[in-house]
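This part of the workshop introduces the protein records we will be handling. A record pairs a protein's sequence with a compact description of its fold. Comparing a sequence with its tokens is the quickest way to learn the format. The record below serves as our worked example for the rest of this section:
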Amino acid sequence: MTSRTLLIPFTALLLTACGAAGVAGTGPSTPAASASATPAPSPAATPVPTPAPTPVPPQVAPSVFVAQNMGLGAVLTTAQGRTLYYFVPERGGQIVCTGQCAGAWPPAFTSSMNPTANAALPGQLGAIARPGGEQVTYDRWPLYTFVADSGPDQTHGLGVFAFGGKWFVATPGLQP
């Protein structure tokens, strides 16, 4: 009697687990809805954590280009090919060219505090704060364009004495 008492609940449990429709001869076979337990992962199937990707700094377009000028050799230019100049009174990074001077000699502004060049330079590019934004510097010299240069490869500002000092074309060899 004891074995029959255990057999009936066991049979009911077995039919419930397999689904009554799955027993041969009891009707069409359809899957029964049942909650399935997720098996514990085996040590071999344990997922390996993926390392976080190394952040890549956004690519910034170069602020300064090195171009070959027919008469001067390698000179520094803007992305548009306009020649860059430095002003002798600004040695060491002191901004002197303001007001009307900046109208004739527009500062070369950068969108980044770390301007870049299209080629390796022996000196160091940087930026200095001034009204209107961040101005590109090369070896601590603030850089400018000249309004009389209307296109690439023009150097009409070379040797001009204006606004209390002399203007020169910036080259890769410019010394601090």
